[in-house]
Design goal:
2 copies of one chain form a homodimer. Chain A has 15 helices and 2 strands. By secondary structure, the first copy, chain A, is mostly helical. Chain A has a two-stranded antiparallel sheet. In chain A, 54% of the residues are buried.
Chain lengths: 299, 299
């Protein structure tokens, strides 16, 4: 795809996902007061919707249809948002800004922020298990995708990465530890997005294997680039102060390997990720372009 | 059933549920350090396992088998435990003791307590969507039960009740508000336990209707009795200091109606709940006895 075409695709899919999120999440004025406002505040704080777009692109790569996986794609963004709200809490990263706006607990207080995160996580599973929303997909397949997602974001996945991240603050860690943090805290949800799109569209075993290699590589690359942007990104584009990793004493790839080597590692991962997609031919062009965007992005 | 028989049944089911929880939840030493220890600490802090027992008893009442619903029953207890961990946090109820032991954040710190709660909630949905654990139940039925559970514990259910509870602290509220808090914060999960047992065992429409009436009534009765025990219970039996509702400025039934009237309300609810079970004859004896225990309990 040309640069213009992929930009158009990403914008179109973002709109589709935004509309779905708006349709699915209870309105601001739904009782009880505050909680849905808080949930929507963070959902609509300006994400790129990369994870749900990966669900859709992965589904389309194996011959599925975007409308069949849309509720699940929305659920992935909802899970991502809950992790951000809880990560920002004073007891965890204690961040005041996110995507250029005050963090959830800064606006709604800690109690509502904790409960909004809980409610979003719960709501994601409500969407993923709704037998009416995805009625073109068989219940056994939906169940298997929801189960895959639960595994990816639990204590052996996303949350496990967050635990080690917190426990490693201010410590010198080895390559193994930082790789664990990045592949779990960030990589697990990206990989699961790719996997679940293909599961829901009943990709075959060889297709699944190729997509798993791809998802694993771009997931790690994404977080390495995130680390680099936190050091030398554009604050206006990122919507947050740079240098927060240093302030929070986070372990990062640039701290361990330097910026140049980290950049090369990310490029090599993306290259390898793209090379896993050969069997799909032009059907995987979108996934290739998304991978390229992962390393070239400036926000 | 005689008093001795129901005690034996409850003890037997508690052991069954405890064994399942021990089998399903990752071991203490599973990487990363701390998180599974924290999850297990609160899971095995001495609950009565009433909600999972309701799942089992409800399933058996409509002709189901306990082994078929056991993973789901365990998941319900896991959800209950996550709500306790998050409710106890300093930003919410700020409680130091629960079931006679220091609360999760007092032992593991706030960050791990928040993440342990998140991990338990996620793990509950992992269990509820595991296609291998409940392979005697059809995927469509499992999906429908998991969806029911998600609705019950989201922002329009359990979490909604918790939001209004927090927002009502120290205020004078009307009967409508306190009924909303109790039916949502506590009642929703009890009702969902009863419902899901019957959904998983494919109870018919009339059976579902009867069980819903029963579940709604005993759920509210349970919380009214909880309010009374917080005023005049035995601290040793309860495992926590009494008077915490007054200290936390919680709205309670005794505060609004007095102890005697509250006790009568709980009794009337349980009576009505039991009367909904007529169609089941002796098959619903366990559910009747559990309802009686709900009002007569001293812990």
């Amino acid at each position: 795809m040309s640069g213009l075409e992929i930009e158009k695709y990403l914008a179109e899919m973002k709109e589709l996902v935004d509309d779905a999120l708006d349709k699915y999440i209870p309105p601001v004025n739904e009782f009880p007061p505050g909680i849905h406002e808080s949930m929507r505040y963070s959902i609509f704080a300006g994400g790129k919707r990369l994870r749900p777009i990966l669900v859709i692109a992965s589904a389309e790569t194996v011959g599925g249809r975007r409308e069949d996986v849309l509720p699940f794609a929305a659920a992935v963004e909802i899970i991502h948002t809950y992790t951000l709200i809880h990560d920002d809490l004073p007891a965890l990263d204690n961040d005041d800004f996110r995507r250029g706006k005050p963090t959830n607990h800064k606006v709604f207080g800690e109690a509502i922020a904790i409960l909004a995160g809980d409610a979003l996580l719960t709501y994601a599973f409500q969407l993923m298990t709704d037998p009416n929303l995805m009625n073109t997909v068989s219940p056994a397949v939906i169940l298997s995708a929801a189960n895959e997602m639960a595994k990816a974001v639990g204590s052996l996945g996303t949350i496990g990465g967050q635990v080690v991240d917190i426990q490693s603050e201010g410590k010198e860690v080895d390559k193994e530890t930082i790789e664990y943090i990045h592949t779990h805290k960030t990589g697990a949800l990206i990989l699961a997005s790719v996997k679940c799109g293909a599961i829901l569209s009943e990709g075959n075993e060889a297709e699944m294997e190729a997509l798993i290699s791809y998802g694993r590589d771009i997931g790690l690359a994404f977080q390495i680039v995130d680390d680099i942007l936190d050091l030398e990104g554009d604050e206006d584009k990122l919507g947050k102060a740079i240098g927060s990793d240093i302030e929070n004493k986070k372990v990062t790839y640039p701290a361990l390997f330097g910026i140049e080597e980290s950049r090369q590692m990310a490029s090599r991962l993306v290259e390898r990720g793209i090379s896993s997609l050969k069997m799909f031919g032009s059907r995987a062009d979108v996934l290739r372009d998304i991978a390229d965007f992962f390393v070239s992005r400036s926000f």
